[in-house]
Write a structure and sequence with these properties.
This protein is mostly helical and 198 residues long. The chain has five helices and two strands, in the order H-E-H-H-H-E-H. It has a two-stranded parallel sheet with strand order 1-2. Helix 2 packs parallel to helix 5 and helix 3 packs antiparallel against helix 4. The longest helix is centred in the middle third of the chain and has 55 residues. It is elongated, with a radius of gyration of 35 Å. The two termini are 66 Å apart.
Length: 198
């Protein structure tokens, strides 16, 4: 009887040890190479964006001048009408009023079309900017072994990042070099100027 209990005891604990050994230990260490950029600095120092902003500003100013010229022309017509209304017949006055109201409505539509044109231009620039920056960051990441690049500035979800992970200057330099080469038509290797970020 004692021998039987001893054998059962042995088999019970031996089986438990075997089961414990069969289950693999779940310890997985994930390591990623990450970099970050300060988006505000990139925008502030990227020549393409600065030039596009300048062009948009000039275009906005030009459109504003065109609008103001039309508005002043209409205001002059309104002033002339008010000055001469007593010399007109009721029919003439009514026709002039309707004409001025139509011109005022057209001026409002013209103003809206100018605003839409400017918004369309801004949207186009923003889309092109996004495409250029993300394409460069993808190329930079592939060359430097980065698996992720995040935007780090006030308001982003990243609360802390080591300065060694900051690739902002490298991205700005690379983007400006690429933009300059694109403007002059030269093509050279755009290999990143900084060491691999770890």
């Amino acid at each position: 009887m004692l021998v039987a209990v001893g054998v059962l005891y042995y088999l019970h604990f031996e089986g438990k040890k075997q089961t414990d050994q069969d289950e693999p230990e779940v310890t997985q260490t994930l390591e990623y190479t990450i970099g970050y950029i300060n988006a505000d600095s990139v925008l502030k120092n990227y020549d393409f964006f600065k030039e596009m902003q300048e062009k948009l500003q000039k275009k906005g100013e030009k459109l504003e001048v065109e609008y103001q010229n039309r508005a002043q022309g209409l205001q002059k017509e309104v002033n002339d009408y008010q000055r001469n209304v007593n010399n007109l017949t009721i029919g003439q006055a009514k026709a002039l009023e309707e004409n001025l109201m139509k011109k005022q409505q057209n001026l409002r539509l013209y103003q809206e079309s100018l605003a839409q044109e400017l918004m369309k231009e801004e949207s186009k620039v923003n889309r092109e900017l996004y495409e250029k920056v993300t394409a460069f960051i993808e190329e930079y990441s592939n060359k430097n072994g980065l698996e992720m690049v995040v935007k780090y500035n006030q308001g982003s979800d990243v609360l802390y990042a080591n300065n060694g992970m900051d690739i902002t200057q490298a991205v700005i330099s690379g983007l400006n070099k690429q933009y300059k080469e694109g403007k002059t038509g030269t093509t050279t290797d755009t290999k990143a100027d900084t060491a691999k970020v770890e």
